[in-house]
Design brief:
about 425 residues; alpha/beta; Rossmann fold; pyruvate-formate lyase- activating enzyme; 3 domains; 6-stranded parallel β-sheet; 6-stranded mixed β-sheet; globular; binds iron/sulfur cluster
Length: about 425
């Protein structure tokens, strides 16, 4: 009887993809979705914030408290920041870097505790043929980042930017499209830098993807404002491109962007966002509040600028000091409570903007139903807005067009 492995994935879509690669590469073990019956637990960790590290430690404590005899293995970005200390404390049996994940069978059989950070310049070439429990497929096209934002630890745990082989990516898409997937989310550490090291580009790759039979919608992970090139603007009206873009600003006060060593400039960001909004795009962004130097004055300037932006989605955090980053020694620091208040302030602003966007939209929603929960179906439309559907029919995995629906605070609601 094969031993059972439980995968616990934290963090971003790139980690979701990496976990799928490990699940697909595993031959000598069986995947279990029941943690208590696992012989081994693989934690695919995140280390983007202190909170992310705490989540991983809390999870390990939970496993220890449940007297689960399973061996714990740590991989993902946290392997490079917390791996050695967790191994020394005897809280994990093995630690391995993302580049080693295809050797999962051998790693799980290793008797002695081990630490193998692997190679930060590794490029994956695995093709997965399914996404366990998903109706849409996350496709990692790129790894690492050449930016050096002063608060960010990621380039040190994911390496420099490098693109996956384009033929492999297209083979990946074809395989999954043959297996019924129609929506593909392109992911990576700095997706927009795809192709710079391979005489290609995001726009060129997406055009090729759209030629593959079965590809219905392409979504993009977070891109940087400066990566929306003229070539990219040419594909904005394509029917296979989602009508939503997530473009990472991280802040809207020019002085803060300088302190954070960001490459984007607020004036150009605003022009870009207004251009995309004029083409009917919903627009999301990343934002960090409470970075050192964020005075009351700079904050009110940031909020004033944010009010002027056609934002609809927000992925925001309070600043998290990461040892080894330039920001970690910057002064004056911002009080944690103040940072939280500012986070809530910008979150409620964008919620209002999202509701206004949904109320003002009068067209048809193009929805992929992903799950069924509490008697209702849940999905996302072309604007990356949630929709809840009441239906007697089993809709999971179905594409439906909806023109009659009710706009509520939390989501759109329909009955079909
Ligand atoms: S672009 Fe900046 S924030 Fe994003 S991964 Fe790279 S260094 Fe970090």
């Amino acid at each position: 009887m094969k031993k059972k492995v439980y995968f616990k994935t934290f963090g971003c879509r790139t980690n979701l993809y990496d976990s799928q690669v490990m699940m697909s590469a595993m031959k000598d073990y069986e995947i279990t979705h029941n943690e208590s019956e696992a012989d081994a637990i693989v934690i695919n960790s995140c280390t983007v914030t202190n909170g992310a590290d705490t989540h991983v430690r809390t999870y390990i404590s939970g496993v220890e408290k449940s007297h689960n005899k399973a061996k714990i293995f740590l991989t993902g970005c946290g392997a490079h920041t917390k791996g050695e200390s967790l191994l020394k404390e005897g809280r994990v049996h093995g630690v391995f870097g993302q580049s080693e994940k295809q050797k999962i069978d051998t790693l799980l059989k290793t008797e002695q505790p081990f630490y193998d950070p692997g190679d930060l310049n590794h490029i994956d070439d695995t093709v997965v043929n399914e996404f366990v429990g998903k109706s849409r497929a996350f496709i990692k096209i790129q790894e690492g980042c050449n930016f050096r934002c002063s608060y960010c630890i990621i380039p040190y745990v994911r390496g420099d930017a490098r693109s996956m082989d384009e033929e492999k990516i297209l083979e990946q898409i074809s395989t999954l499209a043959l297996n019924g997937f129609g929506e593909f989310i392109l992911t990576g550490t700095n997706v927009g830098s795809y192709g710079q090291d391979r005489r290609s580009s995001l726009a060129r790759l997406m055009k090729k993807m759209s030629q593959i039979r079965g590809v219905r919608r392409i979504r993009l992970g977070s891109v940087e404002p400066i990566q929306i090139s003229d070539e990219f603007k040419e594909i904005l009206d394509e029917p296979w491109l989602e009508k939503h873009m997530h473009i990472a600003l991280q802040h809207t006060a020019p002085q803060m962007l300088k302190l954070m060593n960001r490459r984007n400039v607020y004036k150009q960001d605003r022009e870009l966002f207004e251009f995309l909004a004029s083409k009917g795009f919903a627009i999301g962004t990343d934002f960090i509040t409470g970075h050192p130097g964020e005075s009351e004055e700079l904050w009110s300037e940031a909020m004033q600028n944010a009010r002027e932006l056609p934002l609809t989605h927000l992925h925001a955090f309070t600043y998290s000091k990461r040892d080894g980053t330039p920001s970690a020694t910057m002064k004056p620091e911002v009080n944690g409570k103040v940072a939280k208040e500012r986070l809530h302030e910008i979150e409620s602003l964008v919620q209002e903007k999202n509701l206004a966007f949904r109320k003002s939209f009068s067209g048809e929603l193009d929805v992929l139903i992903e799950s069924y929960k509490d008697g209702l179906y849940h999905g996302l439309d072309q604007h990356f807005n949630k929709i809840v559907v009441d239906s007697k029919e089993d809709l999971v995995g179905n594409w439906i067009n909806i023109s009659k629906y009710e706009v509520r605070e939390d989501a759109n609601y329909a009955c079909i």
